[in-house]
Amino acid sequence: MSTDERNQPSHRIPTLDGWRGIAILLVLIDHVQLMLFQGPDPGHEWLRPGAHGVTLFFVLSGYLITSRLLCEEKIDLRAFYIRRFFRLMPCAWAYLLALAVVGAVVHAKIIGSDAWSCIFFIRNYIPNHETASTMRTGHFWSLSLEEQFYLAWPPLLALLSRKRSFVLAGAGILACAIFRFFHWQQYSGGFMNLRTEVRIDALLFGCIFALVLQRSELRQWLADRSVLILAVASPLALRYIYSYHALIPAAESAILTLIVVCTSLRPSCLLSRALEWKHLKLLGLISYSLYVWQQGMLFISHAEPYGALFLPLVAIMSYSLIERPSIEYGRRLVATLNART
């Protein structure tokens, strides 16, 4: 296969599962130490990398979703939303149902009105504080933000030209960065830093790169310089991870997107080969189930360590029994509907 052919847009990102594995590891490292030690000592906040793991998830989502939609001759929104629904909802709703059932069995309120904000994808706004009865759905803020993105971006991409979509995404990034700069103190702590207006740029950077890399000459240019770019960008990414702990600057999102793209275009480089490690890819494969169930398993009252021990088993069962079958059902449903039309 020639370099030109290898660097054409593709439905698959070769290193995608490896990056997902790294992202979920960052989140789990953060939450496990929060469970065991109530977080790092003051001055060592850099030991909590969860926000950076979620930012990496956002970057991957924006890049992957946009790349896949652009591969279609005409964007099929019906098929997109059917696939997204069966990809995300069954696992998330199973988790919410499990919380309700466990709460009823032990006669404790471990989920309340926050269930509705999870179902309607506004958990990053409501409730605007955490309590003992809402903490187990706190991680749904990121799922809500992604769903808000899925509801808005694909129709815009279908309606607008690629050039206008690029301008719109760029304007969104700029607006988000400016807003965050002028409201940094207000949004840099507590629940406020989970809102869409200060987080959406990570998703939009993925969109921007997907749009730009539709041009084969730019893909080729980037592929030829990927090793050099990775050598410069990787230390910069580590520096941002060390320096920022709540709100994530736009520069980090841009650098992470660039690193993700370069590893996908240069599968032979050292970092790309590391991302293809089978155990890391397995972790990435079950990363969604891990992310959905980890908050409930890690923060079980009076039994936290036991929940952590059972988390891998629960995630594997969730992936095997809920996530994978529902994904396959969504695909078959789309195929059936397309055949009828």
Distance between the termini: 36 Å
Shape: globular
Mean pLDDT: 89
> Would you tell me the structural class of the helices and strands?
mainly alpha
Give the uncertain stretches in residue-range form: 1-10
Number of strands: 0
**N-to-C SSE string, H for helix and E for strand:** HHHHHHHHHHHHHHHH
Number of helices: 16
- Beta-strand percentage? under 5%
Main beta sheet strand tally, sense and closure: none
Radius of gyration: 20 Å
Number of domains: 1
Helix content: over 70%
Would you kindly provide a written description of the structure presented here, covering whatever features stand out?
This protein has 341 residues and is mostly helical. It has one domain (3-340). The chain has helices at residues 3-6, 16-37, 50-70, 77-106, 114-119, 140-159, 162-182, 184-187, 200-212, 216-224, 226-243, 250-265, 270-275, 278-285, 287-298, 304-340. The two termini are 36 Å apart.
How would you sum up this structure in a few lines?
The protein is mainly alpha-helical and 341 residues long.
Sequence-ordered SSE layout with sheet pairings:
Elements: H1 3-6, H2 16-37, H3 50-70, H4 77-106, H5 114-119, H6 140-159, H7 162-182, H8 184-187, H9 200-212, H10 216-224, H11 226-243, H12 250-265, H13 270-275, H14 278-285, H15 287-298, H16 304-340
Helix pairs in contact: 2-3, 2-14, 2-15, 3-6, 3-9, 3-12, 4-6, 4-15, 4-16, 7-9, 9-12, 11-12, 15-16
Protein traits:
mainly alpha, disordered N terminus
